[in-house]
Amino acid sequence: MASIIFFDTEIDPKTGKILDIGAVRDDGVIFHRNSIHDFSGFLQGTEFVCGHNVLSHDMKYVGKAMKTAGIDGSNVIDTLYLSPLMFPKKPYHSLLKDDKLLADELSNPLNDSEKARELFDSECTAFNAIDEDLKEIYYSLLENTAEFGAFFRYAGYRGHSSRESGSVSLFMRSLQNMFRPDNSAETADKIKRRFREEICINADISGMVRKYPIGLAYCLALIDALDKSPSVKSVTPPWVLHNYPEVEQLMFRLRNSPCLEGCPFCNKAFDIHAGLKEWFGFGS
């Protein structure tokens, strides 16, 4: 398993000054100081870093220190983005409240780092429990995104068809992505097979794969959860709808817009006679 450090920062919102940094290495060694220079030294020899909501916040303040320590800028794992994928139904993970970690103390980066580690361990366990078809779909959709690519590399998951080494540099990955053939149709076919009974297979899934891979992944996670537990009520976290507003439209097109051609899902979900019988007890 690759080496990893979990971290968090406390930043003065007015000045942008780093007030405190907390981190815990995968072997349990901790760091708790406000020195960015010392933090860079602590990071030396580590391949991955991980935290909660770090891509849009903490990295602005510690990105240079990580580069100085020799950490590939694409090897940042953010537990925030993984959470709706791994825990799509209510109640969500006990450490989460919307986009925040529930910590024992206020403004304690070391404590938050340890909570991020606990959450990440749970996310890894949840990922390992997912069936292989759904893992492959998630990988096909998300492997080249900043939000998820590092997770797959850390987990050593490269899908059934990929032979790419997990140690390929950011520059080489960029080149590979530039010349990689469009696999949206192949990914769409995987989705149609896996979710044949849960979504409209005549929707433009290939277009969704190309334009909205993350939003589509979140939709599929929720659909899968609801299919397995129909009685469970689940609501997409507000921060997801804020960052990926396409989720609502994608869900509508996948589940609430009957196709003219007819498909297994639409034929069942929009059957008027079946609906009358289910809701009002009317016979056919």
UniProtKB/TrEMBL annotation:
Domain of life: Bacteria
InterPro entries documented for this protein: RNaseH-like_sf (IPR012337), RNaseH_sf (IPR036397)
Keywords: ATP-binding, Helicase, Hydrolase, Nucleotide-binding
Stored Gene3D superfamilies: Ribonuclease H-like superfamily/Ribonuclease H (3.30.420.10)
GO MF entry, a single one: helicase activity
UniProt-recorded name of the protein: RecQ family ATP-dependent DNA helicase
Organism expressing this protein natively: Candidatus Cryptobacteroides excrementavium
